[in-house]
Amino acid sequence: MDPRDELKKLAELFPGGPPLFDAAEHVAGSMVPEPYKRLLVHDSHMTVSMEEYHGTAVDVRVLAVHDEEPYSRKIVLTKTGTDEVVQFGIVRFDFGYVTDAVRDEIVAGDTPLGRVLINHNVLRHVDLGAVLRFRCGPGLAEAFGTNVGQKTYGRLATIFCNGQPAVDLLEISTPLQ
Fold this sequence. Notes:
Layout: H1 3-11, E1 21-27, H2 36-40, H3 46-54, E2 58-66, E3 71-79, E4 85-93, H4 100-108, H5 113-119, E5 124-136, H6 138-144, E6 151-161, E7 164-173
Antiparallel strand pairs: 1-5, 2-3, 3-4, 4-7, 5-6, 6-7
């Protein structure tokens, strides 16, 4: 599937409000500059990558939710104990591949998705779909506390839970110096 199609599907899960980005361009992983490359070009959870890069645990703040199947939410990750946003994300999750306890903890919205899956030892694999360069639109600029037009990087990924494609992700790093 063309990454632009998947990006559009995920972004359209939460219509209305200001546009998230003015432009998005697919970038080969080998061409992504540091530190974005270290943060995005891998087959691991972004929760872990963000915590390692920023040197602190991260908290999740849920901005919007669609409870119907598949469950979807729009979030930001912040440095623990602060309002400093390190990542924006949209998640679409088919709960048919995880236990009720995992589903309940994700729906509660108190713990980042990656941490929930790790804590519950869900058999999982993260499949990196595409890395994208974004120019922030009003929606991302507001979430990140930056200017419209600021450039940053993100990724599309799928998490396979117990061998099945359960989670589709859009994960965008806050602009870094």
